[in-house]
Amino acid sequence: MLMHNTTHKSIITILFIISCGSSFAQTQTAIYPGEPWPDDKGNHIQAHGGGILKAGKTYYWYGEGRAKDNDTSLRYVSCYSSADLMNWEFRNYVLKTGDPDYMGKRFVLERPKVYYNKKTRKYVMYMHLDSSNYKAARVGIAVCDRPDGDFTFIKSFRPLGFESRDIGQFIDDDGSAYLVFEDRAAKGFHIAKLSDDYMNVEKDICLIKLPLEGGAIVHYDGMYYAIGSALTGWRANPNKYATAETLAGPWSEFADIAPPAVNTYGSQSTLMLKITGTKKTTVVFMGDIWKPLTQWDSRYLWMPLKIGNGKLFLPQPKPWSINIVTGEVIFKL
After folding, report:
1. Which residues, 6 or more positions from 3, have their beta carbon under 8 angstroms from its beta carbon?
2. Closest CA to 49 of 275, 289, 262, 283
3. Distance from the first to the final alpha carbon of the chain
4. Which residues have CB under 8 Å from 81's CB, separation 6+?
5. Where are the beta strands (DSSP E) in 158-247?
6. Which of 115, 181, 273, 325 is deepest in the core (most CB within 10 A)?
7. What letter does residue 84 receive in the DSSP assignment?
């Protein structure tokens, strides 16, 4: 009888372990644009409007945490880590805050981007911080000693006195750090250099005069490429790009990054991620597919761009993988 009970308990234990294990995500062998993207616990990744920081061999993905069960009085910034850009481990809500600077109960915290300052050894987060009517138009700053630690909110301000809504980040090949921010009053977006400690915006490098948001910049093969999205709120539109030999311009006329009819395949730009491998340099378009009524289910469109010689094109989305070491991309059938 004792042996029977022991066997029975063992079977129950095994079934319990299997049941628990099934709630965790399987290893991802590809990126599937527009599909649910599970983290290491099997939950759809909550890193909307996000940015990527690489520290050593690890990529950190920060974004708006919009999980369905969030406390609606708080705003969340999530942090995930990955060694291959396909499999992501949830690390922390690195910022979980109530109204940090008197913006009101329905305050806005969007598009967090994190920089690492080598001089101060601080991780510095910039974010769009606003009132519910988008009249404050400010950036907020939070800092931390670790990429996945608890960030401390420091201040908010209008960079160089300008309105700032959607923000983007750009780190040039020489390590210089820039903030990209939309200025509704000026009908364009600014490229501005950060101060040495990254705690302020020091110099306006350029105002690209076209009413665009979701600004993203990459430096590739001696040329700068800038992407932006038209001002249509949550609704997708044809994102456009321009080129220049220097950040200060002059910038070329804007052209579509994909056939206009597809509205950037339902997405909006947030970042261009450059992976410099031993064999190839790949630039990945990172976009958000917003679902305003079910924001926790908003998806991601990541795709390698066709880029070079002043041309940029976003191919039709399909599953793909990347070798982080070589930079080579493989498209799945």
Report:
1. none
2. 289
3. 55
4. 58, 59, 60, 61, 88, 89, 91, 147, 148
5. 167-171, 177-183, 188-194, 201-208, 212-220, 223-230, 240-244
6. 181
7. S
| Count, residues in the chain | 333
pLDDT tens, 66-100?
999 999 999 999 999 999 999 999 999 999 999 99
- Non-local (6+) Cβ contacts of 77 within 8 A are 62, 63, 64, 65, 93, 94, 95, 96, 109, 112, 125, 127, 151
Region for residue 57 given its phi and psi (left: phi exceeds 0; alpha: psi -120 to 50; beta: otherwise): alpha
Alpha-helix residue ranges (DSSP H) falling in the chain: 2-21
CATH code: domain 30-331 is 2.115.10.20
Ranges of each domain in the chain: 30-331
The residue among 333, 217, 330 whose CA lies nearest residue 280 is 330
- pTM, two decimals, is 0.92
Category of 236 on φ-ψ map: left (φ > 0), alpha (ψ -120 to 50) or beta: beta
Identity at 83, one-letter amino acid code: A
Q: Encode pLDDT of 305-328 as tens digits.
A: 999 999 999 999 999 999 999 999
| Distance, CA of 43 to CA of 212 (rounded, Å) | 32
Q: How far is CA 83 from CA 59, 77, 291, 324, in A?
A: 6, 20, 28, 8
- CA 253 from centroid of its chain's CA atoms: 26
Give residue-wise pLDDT tens across range 146-198: 999 999 999 999 999 999 999 999 999 999 999 999 999 999 999 999 999 99
